[in-house]
User: Fold this.
Amino acid sequence: MLARLFYQDIKRWSLKHSFDVVTYIPASPSHLQARGFDPVYELYKDIFNLKKLLVKADADKPQAQKNRLERLQTPQTFYPLPELEQIQRNQSILILDDIYTTGRTLMHSHDIFLRAGFSDISTFSLSR
Assistant:
């Protein structure tokens, strides 16, 4: 699996940084059904204690099939899970993603945590 190729680099980075809660950008239901696995979860699951805090609604078409303008105009597709309410608002949150293209996905997920009252929110992507 591709995740094994990046394991050491991601692990090294994780040892230099500390967060109270680590979550990830989840696959949408249609993406999960088509692939049979969640690529972002699989990339990071052996390194971080991941908490699923978001749900991603199906979009009109996958991000990979959109051009830059379409990506930037994508409306909010994330919704918080009830588990988010159990986390103290003063804790630091790390949101993991695989590929940063326009940043829209991470901005939308960041907004969910910001609206929930968190202020210490960081992001990490494998590639840009």
